[in-house]
Write a structure and sequence with these properties.
Largest sheet: 6 strands, parallel
Shape: globular
Number of helices: 17
Strand order of the largest sheet: 3-2-1-4-5-6
Order of helices and strands: HHEHEHEHEHEHEEHHHEHHHHHHH
Distance between the termini: 48 Å
Strand content: 5-15%
Structural class: alpha/beta
Helix content: 40-55%
Number of strands: 8
Oligomer: single chain
Radius of gyration: 21 Å
Length: 343
């Protein structure tokens, strides 16, 4: 169908705005950019975790872990079906490779997700049920709903459940207190002054925007030229989350490092290998046996403190390039993780 108003300037969004109001148009682009970046970064995390679980399943085929009965497919929970929740769900369905049957939503208005239910996604209003089921739980509710949500989730989350919060205005340390849970990742975006409004305004139709390599490039977590910057603290938290997943399956430290390095080596062969001292202090690493799992890392603390991993990444341009290459490769490839080489 032809849009007969496409070239009529009188129908444009800017028509009728005062000069003072036009100065605020950059906020519209910023909002679109934040939605796209938030969804893209969440999909990147899901792909990494899914890949790691598949590799662990293959690696531990003869052990009592993921291979013996537990499905390596991720179970993704989304709490809240407002604007961010819907955009995230669209992105996950298009880019993450997660089966729709492995995505569940808890919303006060389940009817708002009726178009997604037809794809196999399940929607209901039961925060307790979602918390007990999910491997990764995305919080997309309003800040005003947070006290009730945290009361619902407190003591319901398994230690291995990774909580990813899009709730603004609530620091990760405070969220950890409210939930009684420290496996929490919260992106903290910074803004850099640059003229990128046209780039992000092309995100208004998300499914169309997903096909634009320029937007995938612009949303890279370590890119500052796009005006939206996530930075190394988030990258550190993502890598620590992969380490915790290995710890939760009782993998020895040597095996955990080997499997995590394997993911990134496939995307960037020249990457510097992660070693035990990359994640933990040299004194602790020196006493860690190869068959002994890494200690559990509090993601809440790792995002607000200087960690060995932050120091390592800050000084390793090669590893930063590796992260960027893996990000672009995973999001630009078709959303089919089953074809990933496990051997």
């Amino acid at each position: 169908m032809v849009d007969v108003s496409a070239d009529l300037s009188s129908f444009s969004f800017e028509t009728g705005l005062t000069e003072d109001e036009k100065e605020l148009l950059y906020l519209r682009a910023r909002s679109a950019g934040l939605t796209f970046c938030g969804s893209a970064h969440a999909a990147f995390l899901c792909k990494l975790v899914h890949l790691l679980r598949c590799i662990i399943k293959s690696h531990t085929a003869n052990r009592d872990s993921l291979a013996s009965g537990e499905d390596s497919d991720l179970c993704i929970g989304i709490l809240g079906m407002g604007h961010m929740g819907k955009q995230l769900l669209l992105f996950l369905l298009e880019k993450s490779g997660i089966k729709p049957s492995h995505i569940k939503i808890s919303s006060r208005r389940p009817e708002s997700a009726v178009e997604f239910i037809q794809t196999g996604v399940e929607c209901f209003f039961d925060n307790h049920r979602l918390a007990a089921w999910a491997d990764i739980l995305f919080l997309c509710c309003l800040p005003s709903h947070l006290p009730k949500v945290c009361a619902d989730l407190h003591s319901r989350l398994s230690r291995r459940c990774l909580v990813y919060s899009f709730i603004s205005g609530v620091p990760v340390t405070r969220l950890a207190q409210l939930l009684g849970h420290d496996f929490i990742l919260k992106p903290q975006y910074d803004f850099v002054a640059c003229d990128t409004a046209d780039v992000w305004l092309s995100c208004t139709h998300l499914t169309r925007a997903l096909t634009y390599p320029l937007l995938i490039e612009a949303s890279c977590p370590l890119t500052v030229s796009s005006g939206i910057y996530l930075g190394l603290n988030w990258v550190c938290a993502v890598l620590y989350s992969l380490l915790n997943i290995c710890t939760s399956t009782s993998l020895g430290s040597s095996d955990a490092l080997s499997l995590i390095n394997r993911i990134f080596k496939e995307k960037w062969p020249h990457a510097v290998e992660l070693i035990a001292q990359s994640f933990i202090s040299a004194s602790y690493a020196s006493s860690l046996l190869t068959e002994e799992p890494f200690p559990w890392i509090s993601l809440a603390d790792a995002q607000v403190k200087d960690t060995p991993l932050l120091c390592f990444l800050s000084s390793s341009k090669s590893m930063q390039q590796c992260i960027s290459a893996a990000y672009k490769s995973l999001l630009e490839t078709p959303a089919k993780l089953d074809s990933y080489s496990l051997m």
